Automatic annotation (TrEMBL):
<comment type="subunit">
    <text>Homodimer.</text>
</comment>
<keyword id="KW-0786">Thiamine pyrophosphate</keyword>
<protein>
    <recommendedName>
        <fullName>1-deoxy-D-xylulose-5-phosphate synthase</fullName>
        <ecNumber>2.2.1.7</ecNumber>
    </recommendedName>
</protein>
<dbReference type="InterPro" id="IPR029061">
    <property type="entry name" value="THDP-binding"/>
</dbReference>
<feature type="binding site">
    <location>
        <position position="286"/>
    </location>
    <ligand>
        <name>thiamine diphosphate</name>
    </ligand>
</feature>
<dbReference type="GO" id="GO:0016114">
    <property type="term" value="P:terpenoid biosynthetic process"/>
</dbReference>
<feature type="binding site">
    <location>
        <position position="175"/>
    </location>
    <ligand>
        <name>Mg(2+)</name>
    </ligand>
</feature>
<feature type="binding site">
    <location>
        <begin position="147"/>
        <end position="148"/>
    </location>
    <ligand>
        <name>thiamine diphosphate</name>
    </ligand>
</feature>
<dbReference type="GO" id="GO:0019288">
    <property type="term" value="P:isopentenyl diphosphate biosynthetic process, methylerythritol 4-phosphate pathway"/>
</dbReference>
<dbReference type="InterPro" id="IPR005475">
    <property type="entry name" value="Transketolase-like_Pyr-bd"/>
</dbReference>
<dbReference type="InterPro" id="IPR033248">
    <property type="entry name" value="Transketolase_C"/>
</dbReference>
<dbReference type="GO" id="GO:0000287">
    <property type="term" value="F:magnesium ion binding"/>
</dbReference>
<keyword id="KW-0460">Magnesium</keyword>
<dbReference type="InterPro" id="IPR049557">
    <property type="entry name" value="Transketolase_CS"/>
</dbReference>
<dbReference type="InterPro" id="IPR009014">
    <property type="entry name" value="Transketo_C/PFOR_II"/>
</dbReference>
<dbReference type="InterPro" id="IPR005477">
    <property type="entry name" value="Dxylulose-5-P_synthase"/>
</dbReference>
<dbReference type="GO" id="GO:0030976">
    <property type="term" value="F:thiamine pyrophosphate binding"/>
</dbReference>
Length: 628
């Protein structure tokens, strides 16, 4: 056990293995993956599905000279293990550990960083063009899943690449799944291709042809091409990729190592754009994941024997609170519709989808389209609620401005995973949305302190607001026991949790919990109780309250789950500065850099945004004036 993988770790090169060792290597790889990911958590099912594909790719191509661009990159664990990172694999997705995504900073075998979907063909095309411009002749390969193939960016790249005739290879890894079931016309088209046996027929024809005209190994591809041209019938139905100018090869069995090796040998160094359609099974080799690929797309620690998750919480997740409330709102108002961009289960939208299938739209991985589609619906009096992760909405920035806000359309954005998300790291931290939304005219931005307030804000956003409105809430479990503070939501009004003297702490959303604990410690230290405010509205700010508070307080602290620049605190600072008010404002927020991976609590602690850190920063700032 561990022998073959350890050999690769020692030699740093899978190419030194004998071909007959590759099957046992795949077996060992699956065991290793399971034994580790059941402890660290991670994107298990996608990785189990690409074991043979990755092993064959890295056996035939020469890394790092040849460049493999993994789309999203959540399925690059095997690649990491094969390229010298087995020894660090137990640190996967942990603080200061191995990233769950490709990262050129981590290894020169990682050609391009990713985390968001549908970028691989564009990036690979750019890398191939750069190769040509520099007179090099390495191979460039994009590996993209069927789910990621629903993203518009992929088609912009195909459109560019096919016309351009740049030689590079696209491997379409089709497991018929996005995170949930894949949807849309492209997915249907892939299904129709999957069931055809054109590649096998082509191979049969080729064999007959070869028996008549002897050919040697490397020329195989050229012969295949000739066979193809002489057997046009096989291609009459045509894959859409042929129309884009790619040579289409497939569908091929992505778990048949021999077939993968043969194809990759044949296409290596080809001089035109080629797309290989590979069929795989998500979760392959681990029954709980094969039977339930959705939940095993991304998992926390689990029991390997049963597949059951280990972490349980008595509190509901923010997404679950959102989902439950949406059903209630949907029952009362038939104008409400739900939109997701391939994140139905992640955003808690499943119950709404089940209850109102005609009023629920999974637009696939298409945040830009989802936003403009919502604008279209809103322009006709429908009330769309688009539930979308904060970092993925970054894609639709122009659509938010141009299609929604400029026309002041009543679109509700339920921004899930706002703030620090944890183990996914830099690519997924939702720490920009306050900065990229709050300066847009007409946009209302709300941040709930707890589960109850999320429900109230949703009701308010759907039934009371008129223009565009965004409610941002974090990943994880929602606080439910703030029984004492249940004031109704009023446009542009903050909620005063506690009046105070000297210091005022203004909290954004769920940060109020840590702020309350920090405030308690300050009072235990003998300071006057600080004023505590739950801002609720980040845009527009409650300017009346900001003025009022200066009567009793001269030290203002803002606390938020966002980067500092352009965030909530900097807006407060701007307000006082523009008005010429002489008051000390300190912003407690994430620093202006890409925030690394780690658990949410580790990251809040590292950046001084947990209760302890907030307490220390306030104490440090005011220490002198209080003589402490
Ligand atoms: C822009 C963007 N939207 C949504 C996601 C979330 N997401 C990550 S993987 C994934 C499904 C991808 O499906 P596919 O490409 O087929 O890969 P598979 O996991 O099936 O191998 C989704 C929706 C993302 N990473 N980026
Ligand atoms: C790779 C990707 O983008 C998603 O799978 C993401 O990791 C999901 O995040 P959650 O676990 O927060 O739903
Ligand atoms: Mg897929």
């Amino acid at each position: 056990m561990g022998g073959l993988l350890d050999r690769i770790q020692a030699t740093g090169d899978i190419k030194k293995m004998k071909e007959e060792e590759l099957e046992p290597l795949c077996k060992e790889m699956r065991r290793f993956l399971l034994q580790n990911v059941c402890k660290t958590g991670g994107h298990l099912a996608s990785n189990l599905g690409v074991v043979e594909l990755t092993v064959a790719l890295e056996y035939i191509f020469n890394l790092p000279e040849d460049k493999i661009v993994w789309d999203v990159g959540h399925q690059a664990y095997i690649h990491k293990i094969l390229t010298g990172r087995k020894k660090d694999f137990s640190t996967l997705r942990q603080l200061d550990g191995l990233s769950g995504f490709p990262k050129p900073k981590e290894s020169d075998a990682d050609a391009f960083a990713a985390g968001h979907s549908s970028t691989s063909i564009s990036a690979a095309l750019g890398i191939a063009k750069a190769r040509d411009l520099q007179g090099k002749n390495n191979n460039v390969i994009a590996v993209i899943g069927d789910g990621s193939m629903t993203g518009g960016l992929a088609y912009e790249a195909l459109n560019n690449a096919g016309r351009d005739k740049t030689n590079f290879i696209v491997i379409l890894n089709d497991n018929q799944m996005s995170i949930d079931n894949n949807v849309g016309a492209i997915s249907k088209h892939l299904n129709s291709l999957r069931t055809s046996n054109r590649y096998r027929t082509l191979k049969e024809n080729f064999k007959q042809f070869r028996d008549q005209v002897p050919v040697l190994g490397k020329a195989t591809y050229l012969v295949l091409e000739k066979v193809r041209d002489s057997a046009k019938l096989l291609f009459l139905e045509g894959a859409v990729f042929e129309e884009f100018g790619f040579k289409y090869i497939g569908p091929v069995d992505g778990h048949n190592l021999e077939e993968m090796l043969e194809i990759f040998r044949n296409v290596k160094d080809a001089q035109e754009p080629i797309l290989i359609h590979v069929k795989t099974t998500k979760g392959k080799g681990y029954l709980p994941a094969e039977n339930n690929p959705g939940p095993f797309h991304g998992v926390g620690p689990f029991d390997m024997k049963t597949g059951n998750g280990l972490s349980k919480s008595e509190h509901p997740s923010w997404s679950a609170v959102f989902g439950k409330k949406m059903v209630e709102l949907g029952e009362k108002n038939p104008k409400i519709v739900g939109i997701t961009a391939a994140m139905c289960s992640g955003t808690g939208f499943e119950a709404f989808q089940a209850a109102f299938p005609d009023r629920f739209f999974d637009v696939a991985i298409a945040e830009q389209h989802g936003t403009t589609f919502a604008a279209g619906l809103a322009s006709q009096g429908i009330i769309p609620v688009f539930a979308v992760y904060s970092s993925f909405l970054q894609r639709a920035y122009d659509q938010v401005i141009h299609d929604v806000c400029m026309e002041n359309l009543h679109v509700v954005f339920a921004i899930d995973r706002a703030g620090i998300v944890g183990a996914d790291g830099e690519t997924h931290q939702g720490v920009f949305d306050l900065s990229y939304l709050t300066h847009i005219p007409n946009m209302t931005v709300l941040s709930p302190k707890n589960a109850w307030e999320l429900e109230e804000m949703l009701e308010y956003a759907v039934n009371v607001c008129e223009g565009p409105v965004a409610i941002r809430y974090p990943r994880g479990t929602a606080e439910i026991d703030f029984a004492e503070h249940k004031q109704p939501i009023c446009y542009g009004k903050a909620e005063v949790i506690q009046k105070g003297k000297g210091i005022a702490i203004l909290a954004e959303g769920h940060m109020l919990q840590a702020v309350k604990q920090a405030a308690e410690r300050l009072t235990q230290d003998g300071l006057d109780a600080p004023a505590l405010v739950n801002m609720r509205f980040i845009s527009p700010l409650d300017e009346e309250l900001l003025l009022e508070i200066t009567k009793d307080c001269n030290e203002i602290f803002t606390v938020e789950d966002n980067l500092r620049k352009g965030g909530f605190g900097s807006k407060v600072l701007e307000f006082y500065s523009d008005g010429g008010y002489r008051i000390s404002v300190t912003n407690l927020a994430f620093p202006d850099k890409f925030i690394e991976q780690g658990s949410q609590s580790q990251l809040f602690a590292r950046y001084g945004l947990d209760a302890e850190g907030i307490y220390r920063k306030i104490k440090g700032k005011i220490g002198e004036s209080y003589g402490r």
